[in-house]
Amino acid sequence: MAKPASKAGKKSSEEVFAGFQALRAEQRQLASKISELEMDLNEHKIVLETLRGVEGSRRCFRLVGGVLLERTVEGALPELQANLSRLPAALAALHDQLARKGQAINDYIETHDIRLQRGAASAPAPDQPDQPAHPPKANVLVPSA
């Protein structure tokens, strides 16, 4: 009777794999968001550089949520500068979340005794051009029992 009780508390390999995949997906989403904000930061810097050399009463346009807004340069500059000053803090927070997510993945791997194996697929020989090239497998999750 002790064995069924211990198995009920233990996750199956499919559940462990699904949990691991979910953590990795969250990590990829964070990395994607960081990349997006870094691009926004660079775009804000470029636009601010450009607009600083322009007369303040000149019209400019800004796309916000799919809506094109008409502003003057002197009205748009403070908004852009405020956004630019907030972006580094947001990036720092996301980098911190990414580091915590990486630690959570490492803890999950240790807790469930997971081993990642790198697949090693060989490239087709040059004298056999008819065979399709198969990309090497990235990671294989192997739960140890």
From TrEMBL:
Protein name: Uncharacterized protein
Organism expressing this protein natively: Choristoneura fumiferana (Spruce budworm moth)
